[in-house]
Write a structure and sequence with these properties.
This protein has two domains: 3-101, Electron Transport, Fmn-binding Protein, Chain A (Pnp Oxidase, Chain A); 105-216, predicted glycosyltransferase like domains (Thrombin, subunit H, Beta Barrel), CATH 2.40.10. Strands 1-2-3-8-7-6 form a six-stranded antiparallel barrel. A six-stranded antiparallel barrel has the order 11-13-14-17-16-15. Strands 4-5 form a two-stranded antiparallel sheet. A hairpin with a 2-residue loop joins strand 4 and strand 5 (50-51). It contains two helices and 17 strands. It has helices at residues 101-104, 197-216, and strands at residues 13-18, 26-34, 39-43, 46-47, 50-51, 59-66, 69-82, 86-92, 97-100, 107-108, 112-120, 125-126, 130-137, 141-146, 155-162, 165-178, 186-193. It is mainly β. It is globular, with a radius of gyration of 19 Å.
């Protein structure tokens, strides 16, 4: 069996997330078959009574929750099989990443921050500083909205303040959505790049603090 396949089990529940500019919904699915050539089949999800349409060659994100950890990887749809149970045949196109569940929790919050594109980090060359607002934040990344258009996989420098501590972190754009909202037409999701444990701990302290406040108000 292909080395990557040791991470999977037939019948295991998974979540599928489309990687594109207009749909960031997670769909529930299940692993149906594991093949010796390194591919696997998953059930085409049904949402609100309809089968979700996926194009061949699309890149999707697979999320597998297990215990205290969550596993993520990207896969390409190489075929669709319409038998008794409709299936997607997938080929892995990224490493399998393990994320602690505490880092995966997303706190919805609106907070000002500044972002700028990293053009050449060695030469300390950056693009224009843009005002933005967070949509949510976690130990693994954050989402924000702003007026500027960035490209997929662009690296951004992000400056924000949590609990009175100023942080400058770097993140790669992993999700981009055009909303059409006047003045702030773009939403982005970034995954932290080379974040230090000190920086991550400050973010987690902020998240836990906000969770406690919400719990006291009975909102979670």
């Amino acid at each position: 069996m292909h080395n990557n396949m040791k991470h999977f089990s037939i019948g295991e529940k998974i979540h599928i997330e489309l990687i594109n500019n207009y749909d960031n919904h997670q769909y529930t699915s299940q692993i149906a078959e594991i093949h010796d050539d390194g591919t696997l089949d998953v059930v085409i999800p049904i949402f609100k009574g309809r089968i979700i349409y996926f194009k061949n060659e699309s890149i999707i994100k697979i999320i597998i929750p297990r215990g205290e950890a969550i596993y993520e990887f990207k896969a390409k749809i190489i075929n669709k099989i319409f038998g008794k149970i409709p299936l997607l045949r997938l080929m892995l196109v990224s490493e399998i990443k393990k994320i602690q569940r505490r880092d995966f929790f997303r706190l919805k919050c609106i907070q000002s921050l500044h972002v700028r594109k990293v053009i050449n980090i060695k030469e300390k060359e950056f693009g224009e500083t843009i005002n933005a607002n967070t949509l949510d934040i976690s130990g693994g990344g954050l989402a924000f909205t702003c007026s500027a258009e960035f490209g997929d996989n662009d690296i951004l420098e992000v400056s924000l303040t949590v609990n009175g501590v100023s942080l400058t972190i770097f993140g790669r754009i992993v999700r981009k959505t055009y909303t059409g909202n006047p003045g702030i037409p773009y939403n982005y999701g970034i995954s932290y790049e080379n974040i230090t444990e000190i920086q991550r701990n400050e973010i987690m302290k902020f998240i836990f603090g906000e969770q406690r406040k919400l719990a006291k108000k009975g909102l979670i």
